[in-house]
Specification:
The structure is a homodimer of 333-residue chains. By secondary structure, chain A is of the alpha/beta class. Helix content of chain A is 49%, strand content 12%. Chain A is built from 13 helices and 7 strands. In chain A, β2 (88-94), α5 (112-115) and β3 (120-126) form a beta-alpha-beta unit. In chain A, α12 (297-311) runs antiparallel to α13. Chains A and B meet through α3, α7, α11, α12 and α13 of A and α3, α7, α11, α12 and α13 of B.
Chain lengths: 333, 333
């Protein structure tokens, strides 16, 4: 039984039936630090994954704070919901500062119109020490949303480098938000981020002079042309948008659907999904292996003394680790 | 015997004697992907760590590309070498792009005057997929440099978020480089990075109007005053510098020495070092544990089939991982 008093089986049934509060509970279980909660959530997920699923499309939205992510997600989300078959989940990663634990963004209040829609599910998630990035459980949360019938999943992250690399491992398309005239286009720092973008939105064009928008657009386009292609057959576009007057919003969604169809046809969409599943599987294996090891009674009893010797520089970290591991495992031969 | 034909013992002797090419070889061993090379390097390090060592000071230098890291490191390095007892090692992390494998920075040519000094050792290291960050072996490379008698170690990284978090785990003092008037001070994105800075250098002040320098300085100072203190007893300063006309370079080195003495007196310097050693030890334990696991014959034979089933969605990543791990370890009870 889960802590909410549901068995994994009945919680899975509710998630599969599209019950929003059951979905919320399942995500909470996944995000819990307690391993029994995660086991329950994985049992729920296993049940869900047994069922045939429809198509889904996972989209990462990234950009510096102030680039206009929330307003763009709201505008784009409402555009997506114009198609009656669509149901939209938004996983908004709350970039808690690693040190102060403080939170910059608010909650659903940021996307009020979208939040009021029955076909939308908005979930802010703590990034818990993962600087501005996806939480380690974001991939699992995406799978749960899909099981609950949300065929479009938007994942919001803050553009600080490493986090985009990790979101790349769980979404199909990455939209990078940039302010025109911010000078970002001139700085090498964005290069690593631009390399993983499938599309670039130049945001808040209503606030910038037309000339600065045009300049930024061509600067980004020429920067993109110098980068290696992320996917054969796909060239990212630079699309000026305004979430205030709606400019470019429909164009972005059109670009995303075009991406879906191009990569669907050349097989890369499916191939990418397989790679992502493999990555998730391998990280699960590592996690379970380490958990099993640290549960070993012998290791637990010898760890503190060796750790103390390392801290006091009586033993090097390398031979300390070797001694500890060899005490419970014979060397492979 | 190492691949260079030295036994770990004789290589360690040469490193301890300050032999530059031996130090270079030892770092190359550490950075090698081959585990037998790493084992040899750890054997060298173990020998080195047995000897009593003098004081050392480890300094991280971080900032966006274009902030002037190389020129500042050269100017600061020459300032540090004005004290005859100092020997300086510079570990310059080469921010190879994760995707293209390309390299933005050059090599020692960037720090020509410093490179020509006998008391300086400059080592560019590939960051190998760690976006702009420290390589996983940087901590070990620092220890090797110290064993070779370099009492000051500068570690250069590119400011993209996660990398500063990892350099924080291996240096005593972090200097953050910022361009005046870059607008960085207004963006929340730098917050996570500012929180780990022990000092801020406003660079290239010779190129900026005095007013813009003054504005940036007070903006950073007030931003710093709002952040939680990283170390009790230490408030980071904002120091305008020019590597061209030498402004502020001596001031930065003075600030660093003051930090060393303040934190030496209140015991935090030593405490921080112990924590860092502990972190290195624990990451070594995880690494060895996983290596031992993946060397297990049973695991190696069942992994491919389960991985294929996961990729084809016949098994979920979670139950696949569980099945694999439980096939070789009994569940802890």
């Amino acid at each position: 039984m889960t802590r909410s008093g549901f068995s994994p089986g009945s919680l899975a049934e509710k998630v599969l039936a599209g019950d929003r509060s059951a979905l919320g509970r399942a995500i909470t279980l996944i995000e819990s630090g307690k391993s029994e909660h995660q086991e329950q959530a994985h049992a729920v997920l296993d049940r869900c994954l047994e069922r045939p699923r429809g198509d889904s499309f996972r989209i990462g939205i990234t950009g510096s704070p102030g680039a206009g992510k929330s307003t763009l997600i709201e505008a784009l989300g409402l555009e997506i919901l114009k198609e009656p078959r669509n149901r939209l989940a938004v996983l908004a990663i709350d970039p808690s500062s690693t040190r102060s634990g403080g939170s910059i963004l608010g909650d659903k209040a940021r996307m009020e119109r979208l939040a009021s829609r029955q076909e939308a599910f908005i979930r802010p998630s703590p990034s818990s020490g993962h600087l501005g990035g996806t939480s380690p459980r974001t991939h699992e949360a995406i799978l749960l949303c899909e099981a609950a019938g949300y065929n479009i999943v938007l994942v919001e992250t803050v553009g600080v480098g490493q986090s985009e690399i990790s979101v790349e491992a769980m979404v199909d398309y990455i939209l990078l938000l940039m302010l025109p005239g911010s000078g970002d286009e001139l700085q090498g720092i964005k290069r690593g981020i631009m390399e993983i973008a499938d599309g670039i939105a130049l945001t808040k064009t209503d606030e910038a002079p037309a000339k600065s928008v045009a300049n930024s657009r061509s600067a980004f386009a020429s920067a993109l042309s110098l980068l290696p292609k992320k996917h054969p057959g796909w060239s990212p576009s630079v699309i000026p948008v305004s979430s205030v007057n709606g400019e470019g919003i429909a164009g972005i969604w059109k670009d995303m659907r075009r991406f879906r169809s191009v990569l669907g046809e050349n097989g890369l969409f499916e191939e990418n999904r397989k790679k992502q599943l493999d990555k998730l599987f391998r990280s699960q294996v590592d996690e379970l292996l380490l958990k099993a090891f640290y549960a070993n009674a012998e290791l637990r009893s010898s760890l503190p003394a060796i750790a103390a010797a390392v801290r006091d520089e009586r033993v090097s970290p390398f031979s300390g680790a070797k001694r500890l591991v060899e005490s419970i495992i014979r060397s492979p031969r």
